[in-house]
């Protein structure tokens, strides 16, 4: 079976017909499944990765009152992550430092717009076309790329999985 077929098999076994992560892991423990290879089964390695994830969550939830740049005080993350493409460093910078530096501020805005665009790409619903247009206009206002005409999303047709 393919991964999608295995996921569908697991979902159909559930009394509520929903796909539950716990059941996916349980099924994937068997080396005879396509899902098995998608997991890291080295517990020490996974524990380290989980602790890194926890550290990132702690860093992200710490907020402070800060002037957002227009005189308005808002609660904002104390630190933000700006990917360093040169060395692939995974670090966090004080938000006030990022907001005070035009290049870093522009990189932050670009990263935020990229995240929004990624979410919109995953959910091509026509009800979200106004947000797509706003992202394109914001990019243009900040010289990130030219304004692209945002076309309406095609209606999404979902296959029945019953």
How do the strands and helices of this protein lay out in sequence?
Elements (H helix, E strand, L loop, with lengths): L2 H11 L7 H8 L14 H19 L1 E5 L5 E5 L1 E3 L10 E3 H6 L1 H21 L6 H13 L21
Antiparallel strand pairs: 1-2, 3-4
Helix pairs in contact: 5-6
Describe the structure.
The protein is mainly alpha-helical and 162 residues long. The chain has three domains: 3-38, no CATH class; 41-95, no CATH class; 101-151. Helices cover 48% and strands 10% of the residues. The chain contains six helices and four strands, in the order αααββββααα. It has helices at residues 3-13, 21-28, 43-61, 95-100, 102-122, 129-141; strands spanning 63-67, 73-77, 79-81, 92-94. The strands form two sheets. The protein has a two-stranded antiparallel ribbon with strand order 1-2. Strands 3-4 form a two-stranded antiparallel sheet. β1 and β2 (73-77) form a beta hairpin. α5 runs antiparallel to α6 (129-141). The chain is extended, with a radius of gyration of 21 Å. The two termini are 18 Å apart.
Concise structural overview:
With 162 residues, the protein is mainly alpha-helical.
Discrete helix count: 6
Alpha-beta content class: mainly alpha
Unreliable spans: 146-158
| Termini Cα gap | 18 Å
Oligomer: single chain
Percentage of residues in helical conformation? 40-55%
- How many extended strands? 4
Main-sheet strand order equals 1-2
Radius of gyration: 21 Å
Give a quick account of the main beta sheet: strands, pairing sense, barrel closure.
Answer: 2 strands, antiparallel
Order of helices and strands: HHHEEEEHHH
Strand coverage percent: 5-15%
Shape: extended
The domain count comes to 3
